[in-house]
Amino acid sequence: MSKRIYPIGIQNFEKIRKDGYVYVDKTALIYQLAQTGSYYFLSRPRRFGKSLLLSTLEAYFQGKKELFSGLAMEKLEKDWTEYPILHFDLNISQYDSPDSLYKILNDILSRYEEEYGTRPSEVTLPLRFAGVIDRAYRKTGQRAVILVDEYDKPLLQTLHDKELQAKLRNMLKPFYGVLKTMDRAIRFALLTGVTKFGKISVFSDLNNLNDISRWDAYYDLCGVNEQELLSNFEEDIHDLSLAQGLTDEACRAKLKSMYDGYHFEESTPGIYNPFSLLNTFAKRKFGSYWFETGTPSYLVELLRRHHYDLERMAHEETSADTLDGVDSTDSDPIPVIYQSGYLTIKDYDPRFGMYKLGFPNLEVEEGFVKYLLPFYANVNASKTPFEIGQFVREVEAGDYDAFFRRLRSFFADTSYEAIVGRNPERDTELHYRNVLFIVFKLVGLYTQVEYHTSEGRIDLVLQTDRYIYIMEFKLNGTAEEALRQINEKQYVLPFASDERKLIKLGVNFSSETRNIEKWLVE
User: Fold this and answer.
1) Average pLDDT of 94-105?
2) Exposure string over 368-398, b if 16+ CB within 10 A, otherwise e
3) How much is the average pLDDT of 200-210?
4) Chain-centre distance for alpha carbon 503
5) What is the pTM of this model?
6) Are the beta carbons of 462 and 440 closer than 8 angstroms?
7) pLDDT greater than 60 at residue 418
8) How far apart are CA 408 and CA 101, in angstroms?
9) Distance, CA of 386 to CA of 154 (rounded, Å)
């Protein structure tokens, strides 16, 4: 059994190297980054290695050659020059007022002013920042290196409060603008975050910043690619296989379906979630490790506020302009959901410049859809796994009445105000469609479900080992009409020679009662 130690939650490069933790060598890419440009921005989901990347860059620019022994950087770098480092970590505060942002920036600048000095005339944060950069350069004779971790944390925490967000944005914009005005004294700068707040935001004046988030050359700067998985974790995969009673091949396939699938550029291979991989190897057990460390409540609120059709999420299409900026959250929740790691690039149409999005893997798909259920249906979050398990058992046993009674309870006690916005008819239909999508998406993780929607109706085929269900859902029609359509459209024809029992179900949903009015079986 492997006795390797995994750097779960450890983001300091020096600690990882000195204490013997597992490290996937990214230093060739880091060297390339440092030698071919000066100003960069990188967006990646949380717990994807952004902080470790910055820590590695800090060690490199501090000239700590001994930490890179045995890594690619050892052979690439010859000079090992030490530069002054200004490292800003915005991940360590709760941003509930402009003062909270001021306090953290003031604290960081004060520490660097103790080292490099200050001037009485530097009374604003941008002036102080520019002064520190200038004096660091003059005092050391080397241009400064600027590293900003989670630059967008203040803006992400205030998506729900536009007024506060605008105030924080107006503080950050001139602060980050210093990177342009002090170009002569800066050797290198990298800002990282989860999202990119775009064209009218903190970067609007910073046109010297290269966004490498979707550059194919740096697609695997964070995360683990397939080759890195196989070359760094062969023994770990074998240990996991033994613990789970799987062959090595089956174990690799499950790792791929659970944690691979992140595509940050249309033509690149998939990337594995590093946090989930390390936890899986450490505990020798599959789990939703990444999803469980963060609750995407602000994303769900965005979806509900915009009356988003959840069925679109499985095959959303959008442009590069939409993906690259989050300033459109007032009209489109997709950019922030994509950049947060809950959706990823699945395909690209170069003719129209359109990206097709979808869930990256099973961990995210199951976790996100399960998380959605209590926000849309009358079910407690802690009861979600139980309710879905009961749904699956009922359809597997052919007990469709129990299934629909349970489904009806999901719609019960949902207030009119919780469903309806400016368009009552549209929003009522959308609510019932969203609940059905969530339920059947979750049931489909354990059975085979084909789900189709069109104006005022939903049809689906649900298959288990013993049964094939053909269902037609109507809105403000009748269950009789739904059943008649199944027969008239000959939905059962593809299954005529199948030995499993066929069950045809016509269902009607009433917008007046906001619930399932009736179901009929044949």
Assistant:
1) 94
2) bbbbbbbbbbebeeeebeebbeebbebbeee
3) 72
4) 38
5) 0.91
6) yes
7) no
8) 47
9) 37
